[in-house]
Design brief:
By secondary structure, this protein is of the alpha+beta class. The chain is 32% helix and 22% strand. α11 links the parallel β16 and β17.
């Protein structure tokens, strides 16, 4: 028995579990509890461990991916995406598009009730108007410049656009309907928000700290408690506690792999989250194409995915999902010799003998492991990568002020070509690398206005090729969606997992 205990401990330690004391604690829990978990007594509460905590859950400010996923769980919009990333109705019953593509009409059914208000065309118009007011602090307000007018007629909500936009309906997902304690509709000044789905956010959880609670309106569904833990080892210890039922996209790949081997049931499915490497185009030397090409060819993505991510990710050369008809693959592959040639070109061009770059990351283990992998591969081609680890709030401040050479982040729920406007169009707020190219802007504008799918795809293909040629960003990989459960939880098939990582999957989980 002692040998088994020591074997587990050494395995944890060798897999990057740096703090010996915590490795011993985890192995002790696995050794003493792993085979003797007892069924949970309180089956009316489902406790779930998630990954990174959102800043807050106010719909006007839900800019980070965690907040958007959680808000999709308890708040509704006119439309939503289903488990196959297809656009479907949510609050509205149906919609139609005029022949000139400049008028979109949503139909509402009568007597569609919300917890604090009746949802109809007029109510939804008020909601949208509040989001788009001049003094509104809604984070995505700039996307709505295309809107010329909103009208209502009986049970119909009508949008009139300045010009056709194939992504307009998709963008409606971010305007979440809610009321507050004063029965105001979609008001920014709301301390308590009432949603539209089967679960409601508990009092005072809008600006939470470490956990959130959802109360079910359906007596057959349990209440849900969601916990967030920063430290990776503490996160595993938290999961091993008896009152935690599930972990959902919560761990680094090493921890998923290790716990899976210890018998915890897991289901996985392809996701729509895409990680990318961003280059500061306003700072030398990352503003030089030779350096960007050298880095793109020099990072061995297949090896990182195999060794560090345990094959839970898939290489992607584009921001588009692989199911998109315009998706391009094999645009750039690991090639050490090509990488070294680009470094040689840069040194000859600039006369520099040494190259040092600053890489910005957060203190979370997944980010650190990725940074160390990049550092290792860039050292092989003669680039010294200095890793700077800062808290998330400081991380984004430094990106906005351009105090970095490279950083890596993740886009969530990417389903269409609108991502290129967000990331590549000149002057866009989320074009954080300040990329600017008139030809690219023209292609993006054409793709946004083209309503014929085949013609639009041709523009999207040109955009992808140009992005790889210029490399303001380097797409890295798509993330799988992973759910892990305790022995007393019955997990259905992986088909309950959507590519966006929707929390709706939690409603399908059952106790044995």
């Amino acid at each position: 028995m002692t040998k088994v205990f020591l074997k587990i401990t050494m395995k944890l330690y060798s897999n990057g579990w740096i703090q010996w004391g915590k490795a011993v604690a985890v192995s002790f829990l696995l050794f003493t509890l792993g085979c003797s978990f007892q069924p949970k007594q309180n089956q009316k509460k489902l406790t779930v461990l998630l990954g990174m905590a959102p800043k807050n859950l106010h719909p006007y400010h839900s800019t980070d991916s965690s907040a958007q996923l959680i808000n999709n769980f308890w708040l509704s919009a006119l439309v939503k995406t289903d488990s196959h990333l297809n656009l479907t109705t949510d609050l509205a019953h149906s919609w139609t598009i005029s022949p000139d593509k400049k008028k979109i009409t949503f139909k509402f059914l009568k007597n569609s009730n919300h917890q604090k208000a009746q949802i109809d065309a007029k109510t939804m118009k008020i909601c949208i108007k509040n989001y788009l007011k001049k003094d509104s602090l809604f984070y995505a307000k700039s996307q709505w410049d295309i809107l010329e007018k909103i009208e209502t007629k009986n049970n119909f909500l009508i949008f009139k656009l300045k010009h056709p936009d194939p992504f307009f309906i998709e963008n409606l997902k971010v305007i979440k309907f809610f009321t507050n304690e004063k029965r105001e509709i979609c008001s920014y000044n709301s301390k308590k928000i009432y949603g539209t789905r089967n679960y409601s956010l508990r009092e005072n959880d809008l600006y939470f700290k470490n956990e959130i609670h959802f109360d079910s309106k359906d007596k057959n569904l349990p209440t849900i408690k969601i916990e967030f833990v920063k430290d990776e080892i503490t996160k595993v210890l938290t999961f091993l506690k008896k009152d935690v039922d599930l972990a959902y996209n919560a761990f680094s790949h090493n921890k998923w792999s290790f716990l899976k081997k210890k018998g915890f049931k897991t289901i996985e499915a392809p996701g729509s989250r895409i990680s990318y490497l961003a280059f500061n185009l306003d700072r030398f030397p990352t503003n030089q194409i030779e350096i960007r090409k050298a880095i793109a060819y020099g990072i061995n993505r297949p090896l990182i995915i195999e060794k560090k991510m345990k094959n839970a990710n898939v290489i992607s050369d584009s921001f588009l999902p692989k199911s998109h008809p315009a998706y391009l693959k094999n645009l750039i592959s690991y090639d050490l010799e090509k990488s070294k040639k680009w470094v040689k070109k840069f040194k000859k061009k600039t006369g520099l003998k040494e190259i040092t770059l600053e890489y910005l990351t957060t203190p979370f283990l997944i980010g650190k492991e990725k940074a160390l992998s990049f550092q290792y591969f860039l050292k092989e081609i003669g680039i010294n990568l200095v890793i700077r680890s800062v808290e998330p709030a400081i991380f984004f401040t430094l990106i906005r002020t351009g105090k970095y050479h490279l950083y890596s982040s993740t886009w969530v729920g990417v389903t269409h070509g609108g991502i290129f406007e967000t990331t590549l169009k000149t002057g866009e707020p989320r074009n954080r690398v300040h990329y600017s190219n008139p030809q690219m802007d023209q292609w993006i504008q054409s793709a946004l206005r083209e309503t014929d799918q085949n013609k639009r795809n041709k523009f999207l293909i040109q955009i992808q090729k140009k992005m790889i040629d210029d490399l303001p960003y380097f797409p890295l990989w798509k993330w799988n969606i992973i759910m892990m459960a305790k022995p007393w939880i019955s997990l259905p098939s992986k088909t309950i997992l959507s590519p966006e990582g929707s929390l709706d999957a939690l409603t399908k989980v059952r106790y044995k």
